[in-house]
Write a structure and sequence with these properties.
It is globular, with a radius of gyration of 20 Å. The mean pLDDT is 98. It is built from 12 helices and 18 strands. It is an alpha+beta fold. Bound molecules: adenosine-5'-triphosphate and magnesium ion (MG). Adenosine-5'-triphosphate binds next to β15.
Amino acid sequence: MKVGILGAGQLGRMLAIAGHPLNHQFGFLGNSHNEPSSLLGCMFVNDNESLVDFADVITFENENIDVNDVNEVIKTVTVYPGVESLFTTQHRGREKDLFDQLNIPCAPYKMVNSEQDLKQAVKAIGLPAILKTATDGYDGKGQFLIHNVNQITEAWSSMKEKESILEGFVNFKRELSLIAVRDTNNNHKYYPLVENTHHNGILRLTIAPAQSIELEVQKTAEQYMQTLLDKMNHIGILTIELFETENGLIANEMAPRVHNSGHWSIEGANTSQFENHVRAITNMPLGDTTPTHPFCAMINIIGEIGNINTALNISNAHLHLYDKKERANRKLGHINITANSQDELNDSIKKLSDFLPK
Ligand code: ATP
Ligand code: MG
């Protein structure tokens, strides 16, 4: 099939790399001919119409796209995961409303459109709390952690008049995420919960599976996921970011797409998140999500490429670069590690410690 992707970044690139062996062809909607996906299929530079002509099915690699554009596209060609998933997940308020509606625990929240709203929200929720823009945030951008009431004016002005959401601060033990896939016949498959470590709002390390997760906790996360997938009639990969707390799991946010915390699955699972997304949207049977090794990890390469030979010289490390230029805080690639023991995993991570924040 011909798969069209709205976007041409590293996620599109890895979807195409996974889809080529299945005999699919790819087309990308990008802003230039020099994007991470450029050499993996047809590039359509700011040309929606040609992408629509090309594609048998369309998907997206970024939820910050205009729903009106997608509504136009679906008049001609199917778009998966679907408009409902896109509309819900691109707005933190709608996302949290859905969590509430489905009885999925999340932090207390209030929508904020003025400094006055923020004062009232702080009264209702208490401090500390995090103010976030309702739309367009990523890598922790557009967020303000409020510790005391004297910061309210500064916090609101940092939102630049954008609709925002105030969330109660969650005292979490660990950050986890769950990735799952649903096909057009309502089959679901789940990857194991993974543990994510962020630095300055950017994901740096994923441990997969997360260690010491009780079966019950995995089952609870899967149950939340299933209700979300079914409610939104989502086709393809969906990711939920979760906080692990003393009182169980708390949902943070969702992404209607393949996710950085699932990159380990390229070598670490029988079928990667990328291949499963492609299979789901092209009506192929879903692949097995079981890990290939009991201990896997993913280290992001951020800002500068660094000494990649270190990774190339480790037998159980797998390098993935995205063909992007070095720039501060930019995701340039990642290294996957597959290991048969905790010691082997720790040892490999240690050898790659130059890629992690000090
Ligand atoms: P990304 O694109 O990296 O997923 P984002 O910009 O969409 O991030 P969030 O995931 O909502 O934003 O927040 C970024 C990080 O801030 C979280 O991973 C977590 O570490 C912290 N954080 C967010 N919300 C809360 C909260 N309510 N309580 C405590 N910490 C939080
Ligand atoms: Mg997040």
